[in-house]
């Protein structure tokens, strides 16, 4: 919430800018404020929001444990302290007591309080677990953040339940009635609930979640239902006194499931009075060299609008295990009028889509990617105007999103890496098909996710790994659509641009260079050679085919002839060097350099390195730097 508030006040203080399409003149842009508010905002981001609680682990597990950020840690620690205080203070023990000894008073009062507070924590536990959590909408915090809160609330509630059970067991044992108590329904149902809560805690380990997610999910649902039933019977003797703690759990679960069904209907059905129901259509293709499935989904609903930052849950209901659903980040979209084009926007003026790329690497093996390349415009004046139009931007960029008319329909593009379970079955379905692509039945549930305001910043750096390119492409597509619309305005007119961004740097590392080829030939084509976009591609696998390298070298001459090279290095990127280089360059330019947004979407180690690098720059006093992370956990 603090992060959302800081972002709101920071972006709202910017002043609108009117853009001259020809680039002759612009109204003054707002200068960064370095007053009290700016200093406070920078301190909060540097010391609380960006860094991990300790060390550099955040997305990476530390001894199979998730390490939150410092802000998240403060919330978690505060909740632990609150529960510790509520469970540990103001017990009124008095003597003489006609019914309990001093020791028995301690057992009884601690048992009652821990049991009641454990019940009180259950609605919080349940609401933080769902994907349709209202606090996600209110705070703007990520699902992974609420997962951290969910796990800690679960630990606290379970510990309280165990203490409650132990204290009452000691109390009954003192009376010599411990064995007899197990014949009472309220007793053994309460014991069962404590045991199932404990098993839920143990069987929710990161190891099990990562390796056997479907088993983890099934166990989680079954044991949760058993726990609720056990708790209803446990407090049945109080004639509904504790039911107000339990019925919300049922209501939250029902709300989440109903919301999922509503989202499914919203995405996949379009009712027309004059015709039949229109459903979702899906085309899947598998690139074996890139080990990548490209899903192109045309939703049945015409109300669904694609937007950067969205992710959807995908189902194949007519297949084996049709109930399985997995989240995938939206990788791009095609409008109905873009038939035959890539998922990106149209290619900007001054760019030739016919050539090949030279792969470069400093002290590394050189390869050449054999895909269409880009040539410079032969008209210097048109090129100058093109570059100029991309250098002027304005405010309210946080509202920049893809828009389409009601008569058009977007086709959503997803990039899927076959890993296990459903994704492997989808890959096998594509391989068995005799055609390059296969029509399959996929349902969408969504959209979920937050739109990061990267267009509020003059300089944007995308750091992505593998299929994490999905986290960057939609923002680049929104940028290109915005700047293209400004450029196409009639000569001499002025228009307010929807983006402040002037320069984009894309750093993409993936195992197979074939994946780079595949996307450069399609979705990334409009961004190759773009005057405002700098691309850095890396192939990290040590098992790249030597034959492929030799085949690519045949086209090296063509690449030199175009005068345009595309650097693809063999090895891992030096993220620290790249990010600090951009930040230092912008900072050296002063107010004219503007601000920098860094967005990561990729492996845990990559995200943690980017976060640590941004934190280092902010500690050095580099202001106007913002870090975003696209992650699901």
UniProtKB/TrEMBL annotation:
Transmembrane segments: 74-96, 116-141, 186-208, 215-233
Gene Ontology biological-process entries: copper ion import; intracellular iron ion homeostasis; iron ion transport
Major localisation: membrane
UniProt-annotated stretches for the region Disordered: 374-405
Superkingdom to which the source organism belongs: Eukaryota
Keywords attached to this entry: Glycoprotein, Ion transport, Membrane, Oxidoreductase, Transmembrane, Transmembrane helix, Transport
Annotated membrane topology: Multi-pass membrane protein
Residue ranges, compositional bias (Low complexity): 375-389
GO molecular function, one term: ferric-chelate reductase activity
Ranges annotated as biased composition (Polar residues): 391-405
GO CC terms in record: plasma membrane
Compartments, record wording: Membrane
Domain FAD-binding FR-type: 251-454
PANTHER family per record: FERRIC REDUCTASE TRANSMEMBRANE COMPONENT 3-RELATED, FERRIC/CUPRIC REDUCTASE TRANSMEMBRANE COMPONENT
Similarity annotation: Belongs to the ferric reductase (FRE) family.
Protein's UniProt name: FAD-binding FR-type domain-containing protein
